[in-house]
């Protein structure tokens, strides 16, 4: 696959112009289980205006992507599970943040008082509008205006969360409960040789976002495919997990971080030969979770 998928600039421009939705919701003909699958960080439509603003090329900007996670989860609709995926890149707008986590140093004008300028994510340069890519390089050639951030949040963040909240509400109404699987990818931890460290990190905010039997079911399904699992270390969950996870209200959220080394070359952003096998494995995992979770929620 090319570093930027076919027609990314046209797709990104069409998203900005309203010709294409900012996220893709693939619904099954009939939802068969109280499970929703989401890929918030796999979008890779880089608009020309964004590339012109950036000090970095498309290859460097893609280091912030959860590359191809939407494709890894593509079997979900065939199992009767809706799949929601962002089109826009994480470096453009991060929907796993509060809507207004912004760094004042990035802007030439003053920010409104409702902006959260002091969160740990903002301090790390990874707010709703990121200052740096995941590898730490600054993104922008110049300071932004607040109106630019506001436009991205209205065009990307709000539609994504409207779609996600709607799916959760529909699922809960139909089944009495909902399990959201929020799927991400993670880089190899620095200093660890190939083959070391967990394959997958499962996050439940240390028990706050999901009932224990449900997260245990997810882990059992993952281990059944031979993956080395770790819980909440180093990824316990982000905004989506915190905001939507309400086990007492029968809404459970599990964040799943998949090691990129399992399926892609992190330097070239190309799929590895094992991509198809991992995709098939994840489809089997989703099937097992979907079959067993109704008895637990």
Could you characterize the architecture of this molecule?
Strand 8 and strand 9 form a beta hairpin. The N terminus is likely disordered. The protein is of the alpha/beta class. It contains nine helices and nine strands. The chain has a seven-stranded mixed β-sheet with strand order 1-3-2-4-7-5-6, with helices on both faces. Strands 8-9 form a two-stranded antiparallel ribbon. It starts with 7 loop residues before the first helix and ends in a 5-residue tail after the last helix. The longest helix has 30 residues.
Using brief descriptors, characterize the structure shown:
7-stranded mixed β-sheet; two-stranded antiparallel ribbon; disordered N terminus; alpha/beta; 14% strand; 297 residues
Look at the structure and give the mean pLDDT: 92
Unreliable sequence segments: 1-18
Strand order of the largest sheet: 1-3-2-4-7-5-6
Element pattern in H and E: HEEHHHEHHEEHEHEEEH
The number of helices is 9
**Gross morphology:** globular
Structural class: alpha/beta
Write the layout of secondary structure elements.
Blueprint (H helix, E strand, L loop, with lengths): L7 H10 L5 E4 L8 E5 L8 H6 L4 H4 L7 H4 L10 E4 L33 H4 L22 H30 L2 E9 L13 E4 L8 H13 L4 E3 L7 H6 L6 E9 L4 E2 L4 E2 L3 H18 L5
Parallel strand pairs: 2-3, 2-4, 4-7, 5-6
Antiparallel strand pairs: 1-3, 5-7, 8-9
Helix pairs in contact: 7-9
Gist of the model:
This protein has 297 residues and is an alpha/beta fold.
